[in-house]
Structures are given as C-alpha cells and as structure tokens.
Amino acid sequence: MQKIHIITPVKDSLATTLDTIRSVMESQLDVPHTYTIYDDFSTPETARRLDEEADKWGFRVVHLSDVTDHPSPNYLLVLQRCRREAIAQDAGFLLVESDVVVAKDTLQGLFDGAQEREDCAIAASVTVDDEGKINYP
Hints:
- The chain has 4 helices and 4 strands, in the order βαβαβαβα.
- It is an alpha/beta fold.
- It starts with a strand and ends in a 22-residue tail after the last helix.
C-alpha cells in the first residue's frame, strides 16, 4: 500500500459534512492521499456548496447523478468504485462518514497501523463524543 484513498459519502447533511471535510483536510498525513466526496443526489444547494468547498480545499467531488440514474442510496456503488480504484493504485481505502470529525493524527495512525501488519485487511477507529466516550451502539 503506497497511499490512501479517503472518501466521504454524502446525502445533504451539509453542516456535519463541512465539519468532516475540515477535519480530514486538516489531518496530519505523511502518506500520499486523495480525498473524494461522493454526493448521493443531494439538493442543488448542497451540491453547489460541496463544489465550492472542493475548490477551496482541493478535494474531488463526484456527483453520483453524473454516474448513475439509480436513486439514492448508492452506498454499494460508491464502495465498489472506491475498491476498484484503490486496488488499481495499490492504495488503502479509508471511509470517513459525513458526521465524523477525525482527530489530526487518526488517519495517519490507521495507515501506519495497517502497514505494521502484512495480514491486515481492515483497520478501524471508533468514534467518541466530546467527552471522549465511545458513542456507537
């Protein structure tokens, strides 16, 4: 694995997505990486704002309305596309949901941890609330 592809699938939820984008883009990453937002038929206002943020931060936006006419949700399509891309480029594939704010060292830590084990197929991180408590069911 020579680099990582970071993705965030989005269906509206603009406020949390903007926080996610900021945290990913401000992450401390030494490994080459790309960041792509997959817009799954959001409103025109959200789609426009995602494009504006892409211009500002330098990430890529894929509007699934340009790729498929299948109505949202298109999570499986996104995962399949990203898997193919990552394999073709000897890259790791990292998914950050649109309501997650990552710590500055989380993404690099996931990459480093995966690199330490030849047999690593999946590396994951739990989410925590503002008090540091794990907040998944």
